[in-house]
Amino acid sequence: MSPHLLLPERPSPGPESLATYRARGGYTGLLQAQQKGAAWLRSEVATSLLRGRGGAAFPTARKWELAAAATADQKFVVANGGEHEPGSHKDRYLVEHHAHAVLEGLALAGVATGATHGYLYLIEDMHGPRAAAEQALREATAAGLLPFPITIHLGPTTYVAGEETAALNAIEGKPAKPRKKPPFPGEVGLFGKPTTINNTETLAHVAWIARHGGAAFAAIGTAESKGTLLFTLPGGEHGVQRPGVYERPFGTTWRQLLDGAGGGMVPGRTLRALLPAMSSAFLSAQHLDVPIAYETLRPLGTSPGCGGIRLVTDATDTVAMAVEIAEFFMKEQCGQCPPCRMETNQFVHILKAVQQKKGPGYDDKIQKLAEFSRKKGFCSLIEMAAAPVVSAVKLFADDFAKAAGPAQPTDA
């Protein structure tokens, strides 16, 4: 049976109460960390090999060490629940149903780094998660469980507002646009002070690690990918029969996830490919039996991302899907980096030319544009926008060639 680290085997339909969370061991990890100290907690997280669950997969312990080593009169910790990627609902689900696990993880990150104040960062349209978080915060505060004050902050409903430094700007009351790095938040973060910012799923894992130990966490998963991951499976015409948010250990195959958790494809549909997350590259159906792990997906040019899966069936218009994704990134880029503005706008222009049957040459243009723009933005959106578009043109080459039509005649 798959381990349940974050989502109980029998999840409740509504928000988990403090009493229910404590009945399954909640907050015992925080009490233990307060007794054993920050160095012990950082060591356990280092042993766990936990990586960030926001998509970038950065080692959590390394991020913590930066802030822990800094000297300052104030330090901050932020739980980043700024989820706005289409197809991903895991942060919303986690906060709405298990806010205490996120709050405990946030408090633990603060203990580990010496923080004096914490923030739970959500998006303005997260009404259910916000209400659940507010209730959990009232309960935990009344019970005297939190070692420092925690504030819930609501950011704008934009994709880039979920980037960690954009979230910090939003909390400060500034436009939610990414900052240039370095300096990193662990050195100069919120209000100029050392700040640790982790995804909400990452912090919920920290609560489990503090309770059960880093070695127990590292025993789950694969060589480089430890623990479990939350996946959002889609429904509808191009989805599975049981859509929703599921927790599975690294090493699970795509087929086991889609068939086991999701109940298989909706009747009458054949799977052609899948997109692990909107900011990742496509995988063909021949990769359904590849174990889900950073080290197995890296050679294939993709990653698990944030686990918001999209499926390509025999009825999917792959060119239209690529246009939809490109338009999303064009709309959601914040506008402050010229290379990103150019890339995202040009992707849409080139792909729409394919839809208008303007002939070949689109693939070279897209590839050159992606290569030229790489790493030229303040954040990684410039790479996120390129990954699905570049891979779609390659994987669905026949679809694109048919849509583009033959070369256009030129005047003699």
In short:
This protein has 412 residues and is an alpha/beta fold. Helix content is 44%, strand content 11%.
CATH class group of the largest domain = Alpha Beta
Helix content: 40-55%
**CATH fold-type name of the largest domain:** Rossmann fold
Classify the secondary structure makeup into a structural class: alpha/beta
Number of strands: 9
Q: Overall mean pLDDT score?
A: 95
Summed up, the helix count is 16
What number of structural domains do the residues give? 3
Parts with pLDDT < 50 across at least 5 consecutive residues:
none
Which CATH-level-2 architecture of the largest domain?
Answer: 3-Layer(aba) Sandwich
Largest pleated sheet: 4 strands, parallel
Name the helix and strand elements from N-terminus to C-terminus, one letter apiece.
HHHHEHEHEHEHHEEHEEHEHHHHH
Strand content: 5-15%
So what's the overall shape?
globular
**What Rg, in angstroms, do the CA atoms define?**
22 Å
Main sheet strand line-up: 3-2-1-4
Could you give me the name of the CATH homologous superfamily of the largest domain?
Answer: NADH-ubiquinone oxidoreductase 51kDa subunit
Distance between the termini: 69 Å
Description:
The protein has 412 residues and is an alpha/beta fold. It folds into three domains: 201 residues, Rossmann fold, CATH 3.40.50.11540; 86 residues, Ubiquitin-like (UB roll) (Roll), CATH 3.10.20; 87 residues, NADH-ubiquinone oxidoreductase 51kDa subunit, iron-sulphur binding domain (de novo design (two linked rop proteins)). The protein is built from 16 helices and nine strands. It has a four-stranded parallel beta sheet with strand order 3-2-1-4, sandwiched between helices. It has a three-stranded antiparallel beta sheet with strand order 8-7-9, with helices on one face.
